Amino acid sequence: MPQSRRRRAEVPRSPCPISGSLDLIGDRWTLLVVRDLFWGKRRFGEFLESPEYIPTNILADRLGRLEQAGLLGRKPYQENPPRYDYALTRKGRDLGPVLAALVTWGKCHIPGSRTLGESKGPSAKARSRPGRKRA
Length: 135
Prior knowledge:
Elements: H1 3-10, H2 17-25, H3 30-38, H4 44-48, H5 56-68, E1 72-78, E2 83-88, H6 90-93, H7 96-109
Antiparallel strand pairs: 1-2
């Protein structure tokens, strides 16, 4: 693990709980992975079907960070090659109200935003990633 990431995980910038939370979940992708886990996604390929098109290297990194932080756990479902099912831990599920607050704020202040249940057009599974073939 790079020195800067190890230091960031071990030594908080300040005692502020907002600062510490942002160090853990405040990047562009992490809360989207947590959101997808709340939506029932469990496997690597399912996360790739999300409309934000997270790159595979970033997804692998965020899943590892979330596991290391105790927000999710993984269980193997295939040995060769190794593949895993991911699930939120209690600590991860405790982010539910945070996500709900972001949804409320976003729907109020971000024009055109909508939740999965309000989505219009083809479902996420029906969309394909640019440049990727669907099986």
